[in-house]
Each structure stands twice: as structure tokens, then as C-alpha cells.
Amino acid sequence: MTATPANTSLRPFHLAFPVLDLEETRRFYTGVLGCGTGREDAHWIDFEMFGHQVVAHLDPHLDRAIAARNPVDGDDVPVPHFGVVLTMDQWRALAARLEAHDGTRWVIRPRIRFEGQPGEQATLFILDPSGNALEFKAFNDDSRLFATS
Predict the structure, then answer these.
(1) Are 136 and 86 in contact (CB under 8 A)?
(2) Dihedral angle over CA of 76, 79, 80, 81, nearest 10
(3) Which residues make Cβ contacts (< 8 Å) with residue 146, sequence separation at least 6?
(4) Per the domain annotation, does 104 fall within a domain?
(5) In total, how many domains does the chain have?
(6) pLDDT tens digits along 33-76
(7) Least confident stretch, 25-34, 102-111, 119-128, 139-148
(8) In the predicted model, what is the mean pLDDT of residues 14-35?
(9) 46 is in which domain, residue-wise?
(10) Which of 15, 17, 65, 125 could form a disulfide with 107 if both were Cys (CB 3.0 to 4.6 A apart)?
(11) CA–CA dist 136, 87 (Å, integer)
């Protein structure tokens, strides 16, 4: 399978993930991240996250006590995690929004990773109320998304 070049038109992705409390999750994804909502049920909520469909599914037995971390450019990156590659302007706006929010649960504060190297990127990691790790990143040049040299 060949990686899709970053400059082509991509279709939205879909991701379903577990949460402990739907209303707390709604407040976080809509109020803190600015996501819109779509369909919902007593056990799940669709969120529009920068054009993608992410769905929070209620799992009252969710246990996030044990999380793996992998070293990446001096940071301990949580595994698993998910997120979106934003434009640099979107990333800066989200970083500022999260910095201004008193309750942000930072894993990795906004920074530039791989500075001066292929794949240089702005990145930040946060936790949602259920302990799901989210990464938001951006590139000055999207063609560097899969760069190796």
C-alpha cells in the first residue's frame, strides 16, 4: 500500500472511541475543542472534528490506568492516541484556545518537533475527560507529512 500524498483531496475519516460520561465528553469536544455534533443516541455521540467524524461511545467500565508511552524527539508520546493534522493557522488557534482553557489536561504542551529535519511539525497532546490522548499537529509544508529525507 502506498501512502497518499498530502496534497491530494482526502475523504473524512471515521473513528469510534470509548468514554466514561457522554455529557462530560460533549462539553469537552464542543466547548473546549469547538467540535460540532451530529447524530446521537443514549450510548454515543457523533462529533465533527475538523471535517472528520469521531464518535464517542459510552463504556462505563473503561480503564485508562495503564497507558504505554513511546519516546519521540524527546517526548513521551502516549499510546494509543488519535488526532488531526491541521493547517498551521488552525493549529495555532487551537493551541491558543487550549492554553487559555484552565482545565486543559496537557500531556505535551505546544512545541515544534523534529525542528530543522524532514517532517518538522508543530504538535501538542491533551487528554479528554475519559483519558483518551489526542494529538493535533501541523506542518509548514504539508508535502512533508510523510517525509523521510
Answers:
(1) yes
(2) 10
(3) 3, 5, 6, 119
(4) yes
(5) 1
(6) 999 999 999 999 999 999 999 999 999 898 876 679 999 999 99
(7) 139-148
(8) 97
(9) 14-60+68-144
(10) 125
(11) 10
